[in-house]
Amino acid sequence: MISYETTQDLKDIPIRDNGEPLVDFVKAGLTFAPRHPVFPFPRVHLARQGLVDRLLEAQRRLPDGWKMVIVEAFRTIQVQRMQHVANQARFAMLFPYLSPEERQALIEDFSAPPDVAEVPPPHSTGGAVDIHLEDAFGHEIDIISPFSPEQVEAAAWDAPVSDAARRNREMLRAAMETGGVTNYPGEYWHWSYGDQGWAHRGGHPHALYNRLEHTVREAEALQGEPANREPPLRAWPVELPEEELLEGAGI
Fold first, then answer.
1. Residue 185 burial by CB count (10 A; 0-12/13-18/19+): exposed, middle or buried?
2. Which helix (H) or strand (E) holds 71?
3. 192-225 residues labelled b (16+ CB within 10 A) or e (exposed)
4. Under 8 Å CB-to-CB from 195, ≥6 apart: which residues?
5. Distance from the Cα of residue 105 to its chain's centroid
6. Backbone phi and psi for residue 14, each to the nearest 5 degrees, phi listed first
7. Does residue 98 surpass a pLDDT of 70?
8. Does residue 238 have a pLDDT over 50?
9. Beta bridge partner(s), residue 207
10. At residue 251, does pLDDT exceed 80?
11. How far apart are CA 62 and CA 71, in angstroms?
């Protein structure tokens, strides 16, 4: 079993936050997905300025008519906790034959632990982004065939996808890496700039972004409108934690 960028890999990378603000990437000219693939938890359209600048440059390098659709960028630590709980339940259901240690390693591939002080979850820094691609007609660009979105086998960047999906993945990578945004190899949809994962992949001496402590309510105030809570596109296979887990967190 392969593990990608574990907390052990990242914990010794220092973080020197450069103080860049969170900005509204929709107002900057990027597209926000109206619905999350699987989670109903609060989403906001905010990311660090340096990441937004690089995403705009990457979008200009995509084939004519293509655009990036951002599913999530900055994620509050409270939402990260809910997603982590949801993933723990999902993988317990999918892989009951794994040992607790093996299952935890698998969970960590898809969901950063929310409360390891030395390794802030990438999205909590404002430097990570989950995306898909669409053409000029709003049709999603294929980067997963012959797999379906539900299959975890499609997630790794080097998954055995079709020739067409591989070409599309490589076009995306070329556009992103030109500006220094790099892919987390365990998830084709997850890219980052400035966090510890980015520093690890690029051999940088330190990360540029630390965890931000904004609550959902504070993030909503920053973007000037309520968080997105639309129903997801697909049902989660096990019961999801309720948003009441955020109670007491200032939202």
1. middle
2. strand 67-72
3. bbbbbbbbbeeeeeebbbbbbebbbbebbebbee
4. 120, 122, 125, 127, 128, 207, 208, 209
5. 18
6. -70, 155
7. yes
8. yes
9. 15
10. no
11. 18
Asked if 70 and 33 count as a contact pair (C-beta separation under 8 A), the reply is: yes
Q: Does position 248 have pLDDT exceeding 70, yes or no?
A: no
User: pLDDT above 90 covers what percent of the chain?
Assistant: 76
Diameter over CA atoms, the chain:
49
Q: In this structure, are residues 67 and 43 in contact, taking their beta carbons and an 8 Å threshold?
A: no
Q: Are 205 and 199 in contact (CB under 8 A)?
A: yes
Tokens read off for 97: 């034959």
Helix (H), strand (E) at residue 134: strand 128-134
DSSP state of 130: E
246's CB contacts (< 8 A; 6+ apart) are 42, 78, 79, 82, 215, 216
Q: What is the mean pLDDT of residues 28-41?
A: 96
Q: Which two tokens stand for residue 137?
A: 């007609």
DSSP 3: -
> Would you place residue 181 in the very low, low, confident or very high pLDDT band (cuts 50, 70, 90)?
very high
Pick from 55, 69, 68: nearest CA to 181: 55
pLDDT value of residue 108:
81
Token pair belonging to 225: 């409108």
Judge if pTM exceeds 0.90: yes
Q: How far is CA 30 from CA 1, 51, 170, 195, 204, in A?
A: 36, 12, 21, 21, 27
pLDDT of residue 14: 98
Confidence (pLDDT) at 3? 63
| Nearest CA-CA partner of 119 in 182, 168, 180, 77 | 77
